Amino acid sequence: MVGRGFFALIQSFFAITPALVYLVAGQSSLSAGTIVAFTTLQTRLLFPIGSMLQTSVEVQSSLALFVRIFHYLDLPNELVDAAGAKAVPRDEVRGEVELRNVWFRYEEAVEGDADRPWTLEDVSLDVKPGQLAALVGPSGAGKTTISYLIPRLYDTTRGHVELDGQDVRDLQLSSLADQRRCADA
To answer: How high is the pLDDT of residue 185?
Structure first.
């Protein structure tokens, strides 16, 4: 904001400068050529100085944004591999996905907040390898939430999500992410 304020101040100064040149020229014995030279110089300096100030403001804004991004990236992961988590090689994944009695809330209920609704309540489904499955429903029904639970972007509150018969909480997060990249390719 300070940079943008300074930029506005400089622009105002350059807008007023021709009037000041004419005022000084009217009270002194400056030639017409000198007056034209001053106003032309002022006009020619406005855009490069304005561009330079604008670049400075953008660089400062970007640096502030980078600091926030790096603070975010430095946050510890809430989900970590379980002790003894297994890697799943790409060539061993058949692609069976099963949700068994899955309950999920985006934030754990705090004391006195037990009435907050569940995002998913007792959801079960079984998708066999090669089977085409579609999740349909209105906005807020939990379609995206289910798609986030399978690669373990979130953990279930209750119930199990399984990939080829193995609970995803027992698999390495990097291994699950690798399966997702394989599916996208």
So the answer is: 42
